[in-house]
Amino acid sequence: MTILVTGATGNIGRKVVDELLARGATDVRALTTNPAKARLPEGVQAFPGFIGKPETLDGEHGDAFEGVTAMYLAPYPATAAEVLRRAREAGVQYVVATSGGAHWQELTDTINASGLDVTNLGPGEFLENFSGWAGQVAEGVVREPYPEAGSAPIGMGDIASVAAALLTAEDRTPHVGRMYELTGPEYLTRPQMAAQIGEGIGRAVRFEQISREAAEEMLRPQMGDMASWYLDLLASSVEWKQQPNDLVERLTGRPATSLKQWAAANRELFAA
Question: Distances from the Cα of 55 to the Cαs of 48, 70, 227, in angstroms?
């Protein structure tokens, strides 16, 4: 059976390719806009296309869905319905999709209405988001307005591992129709996050509370109007505390990556 990975050079999709190979998948097709630059592993079939342009999926290069029985769907709400329609008509049987609730709920509803057997993965805050703290960590102080804000952050590699485990499972029946809210191993407040990064890189990192206005001014050069939205999310997490779970370990057989472990593996991001 052929497994199609869309967004195969994206942050999660590329890791899905690697995880599929690690699990013994031998017929992987990777959808990428530029196969020549994709640097995909040997044995992976690169197909030129983009889910944001569904017409490229059955264009001059052939049919991306030919022989495909299962697919990883990267989150691209604008064209998801059309991509899923084409997949269904081509005979794809199962889809694992990164989606979620809140502002991703419309995408989840579209996926669930596709008529395909689907499993949705709803991750929370990514470990990789903390690369945005790099400059502050390098100085030894992380400054934000809400010390009680927090989450149970999850690594993109763990999301990819779950997707690959589902796509290669001998029996997918228990997973069909499920929304798996994926989390990291523990809930952490922002000061605890700063401390764990410090432990991971072997250098003390402390947290300092600043005003909302000062935080927005600091973030705006990088995030523009998204700075306010980001701070609103932080504020909401003070009241709504994400509960960590062990879904990653139960679905993949290995524990989710901690923030400390991720920081240690990526310490070059935080070089002073």
Answer: 11, 20, 35
What is the token pair recorded at 226?
């998204």
**What are the DSSP calls for 170-208, one per residue?**
S--GGGTT-EE----SS-EEHHHHHHHHHHHHTS--EEE
Residue 233, Cβ density class (10 Å: 0-12 exposed, 13-18 middle, ≥19 buried): middle
Judge contact between 187 and 117, C-beta under 8 A.
no
In contact, 186 and 154? CB cutoff 8 Å: no
- How far is 98 from 77, CA to CA, in rounded Å? 11
* Tokens coding 254: 């290995």
pTM of structure:
0.95
What is the Cα Rg of the chain in Å? 20
Which is nearest to 154 in space by CA: 181, 194, 191?
Answer: 181
Q: Which of 176, 153, 173, 131 is nearest to 248 (CA)?
A: 153
Scanning the structure block, which residue is given the tokens 């003390």?
Answer: 204
Tell me the pLDDT of the chain (272 aa) as tens digits: 899 999 999 999 999 999 999 999 999 999 999 888 888 999 999 999 999 999 999 877 689 999 999 999 999 999 999 999 999 999 999 999 999 877 889 999 999 999 999 999 999 999 999 999 999 999 999 999 999 999 999 999 999 999 999 999 999 999 999 999 999 999 999 999 999 999 999 999 999 999 999 999 999 998 998 999 999 999 999 998 999 999 999 999 999 999 999 999 999 999 87
Q: How far apart are CA 180 and CA 59, in angstroms?
A: 34
Q: Which amino acid is at 88?
A: R
